[in-house]
Amino acid sequence: MIYRSLLPRDLFAEFERLQNEFDRTIGFSPSIRGAAQRYPALNVGSTPAAVEIYAFVPGMDPERMEVQIEKGVLTLSGERSPVPAPEQAMTHIGERFAGRFRRVVSLPDDIDAGAVTAQYRDGVLHVRVPRREAAQPRRIAIH
Amino acid sequence: MNDQVANPQTPAQEEAAALRPAVDVIEDAGGITLLADLPGVPKEALDIRIDGDTLTLEAQIGLSLPEGMEPHHVEVDLLRYRRRFGLSKELDAEQITAELAHGVLKLRIPKAAHAQPRKIAVAVG
User: Fold this and answer.
1) Count of the separate structural domains present in chain A
2) ipTM exceeding 0.90, yes/no
3) What pLDDT score was predicted for residue A84?
4) How far apart are CA B80 and CA B78, in angstroms?
5) B79 chain-A contacts, CB cut-off 8 A
6) Which residues of A83-112 are buried (b: 16+ CB within 10 A; e: fewer)?
7) How far, CA to CA in Å, does A1 sit from each of A4, A15, A30, A101?
8) A131: containing domain
9) Which is more confidently placed, A52 or A86?
10) Whole-angstrom Cα distance, residue B33 to residue B109?
11) Residue A43 counted as domain residue
């Protein structure tokens, strides 16, 4: 079957079988709105001082992302441009997300929306939403 | 190349669980471009290996989390990415170039000179 080597998929075949057993796909969920609704993947945590949100949104121009807080809901939105394909190119695998995205995170009541910071590093957007001073546990000195 | 999937010579070593990065693989006349989403990976935590005709991407997420942070909602639950690809003979593994920017890896694997398309002029006699 010499002609088989001319088939494009043979040029860059994958070890699917080996992978499937161990690997998990980021953000896979059978949502009625499809996978795009789950992009980017989010991790959310908190400390007594702040709510920490990590969005895994690689390859972005920070100018093309927006973080908004309104009525206790944080919205992250933006657009990821598709890769411009060179002429006569053939796409063998096309899994990377492209297009507009939007995700929302409900915040607790005690946040200070005026002191939010956002930092984009290595393709992860880290948003820190501080809690109001009064809400933080304070140690009262006993005299 | 597909036969590699069932290749009994593939080492069945125990491997730590890893996330599988989303990739785009685009071929043009000169070679293959592979784009892999590796958010959270700094340059020094990226490992690209070629072993025979197998290309392995492995990378570690290097997030610095605040001390004592309690997770509430976790979608990225592993700190490692891994994915393997089989390379065919016409690709020149020696000439691979790699760039990592904002968590996206771009690999360029050119075709070996003998595999480049050549236009044959047809003489009209």
Assistant:
1) 1
2) no
3) 80
4) 6
5) none
6) beeeeebeebbeebbeeebebebebeeebe
7) 6, 21, 39, 45
8) 6-81+97-135
9) A52
10) 6
11) yes
